[in-house]
Amino acid sequence: MYQHLDVQGQPLPYAVGKVVCVGRSYQDHAAELNNPVPSQPLLFIKPASSLTGLNVPLLLPKGLGAVHHELEVALLIGRRLCHAEPGHTLDAIVGVGLALDLTLRDVQDELKAKGHPWERAKAFDGSCPVSPFVEPDMIGHLQQLDFSLQVNGQPRQAGNTAQMMWPIGKLLAEMSRCFTLNPGDIVLTGTPQGVAELKPQDQLDMQLNGQYRFSAQVAG
User: Fold this and answer.
1) DSSP states of the chain as a string?
2) Which of 148, 178, 188, 218 gives 20 to 30 Å between its CA and that of 68?
3) What integer pLDDT is reported at residue 194 of this predicted model?
4) CA atoms in the 13 A half-sphere facing the CB of 18
5) Are the beta carbons of 51 and 70 closer than 8 angstroms?
6) Percentage of the chain with pLDDT > 90?
7) Exposed/middle/buried for 179, CB within 10 Å: 0-12, 13-18, 19+?
8) How far apart are alpha carbons 134 and 34 in whole angstroms?
9) How many C-beta atoms lie closer than 10 Å to residue 42's C-beta?
């Protein structure tokens, strides 16, 4: 069962909650999928059952088409946020890590074409592998974080949180106006360009701000 961990692998004292995600937070990713750029954050939720650690093989659904990786900076929330102001949200962040928003791309394309919600493509069990978390004061300015993904030694995705369309404080405030963020919730902040299909036995190597490295493997 998934449990929030720090970079030393020690359990963190937060109950596992929901995952709140933002789509098209990076313009280059919206462009690569030919999606329009939204005028406000495009929000959706993954349930707690979507969470899994990077220390176990990643299980891809079978028979549902391509599964794409979307690397994102993940924020662990430690204080309740409800209708918060942007200047009061950053103190609620108690952990920073990386996550993969695994997406059934063929399923999502079909759902979008019909104007249907995305949950079938985004919220399946194991669709949110997440790294251990780093304390915010150990990682530098949240709006200047480099992050990257290699698959089988080849670069796939690279971004910096400075490229986000909405600053983190404003994004958390907007989320908190739609639904309360509780301690133990995780916020995914969006993905840069370079999303692509994962294959069985792929080896994934991720870096966060040049300081922390995480790895995972897709099940065979």
Assistant:
1) ----BBTTSPBPS-----EEEEES-SHHHHHHTTPPPPSS-EEEEE-GGGEEETTSPBPPPSSS--EEE-EEEEEEE-S-BSS--GGGTGGGEEEEEEEE--EEHHHHHHHHHTT--SHHHH-STT-EEE--BB-GGGT--GGG-EEEEEETTEEEEEEEGGG-SS-HHHHHHHHHHHS-B-TT-EEE----S--EE--TT-EEEEEETTTEEEEEEB--
2) 178
3) 94
4) 14
5) no
6) 88
7) middle
8) 34
9) 17
pLDDT by residue (tens digit) across 39-57? Answer: 788 899 999 999 999 999 9
- From residue 14, give the alpha-carbon distance in Å to each of 11, 184, 186, 203: 9, 5, 11, 30
Per-residue CA distances from 172 to 35, 114, 126, 160, 179 (Å): 23, 29, 24, 18, 10
pLDDT tens column, 7-32: 999 999 999 999 999 987 787 655 56
Nearby residues of 24 by Cβ (< 8 Å), 6 or more positions away: 30, 35, 37, 38, 42, 165, 190
The Cα–Cα gap between 162 and 17 comes to 27
Token pair 């979507």: residue: 50
Residue 213 and residue 54: Cα distance in Å, rounded? Answer: 11
What is the per-residue burial (b if ≥16 Cβ within 10 Å, else e) of 120-158?
ebbbbebbbbbbbbbebeebeebeebbbbbbbeeeebbe
Query: Whole-prediction pTM value?
Result: 0.95
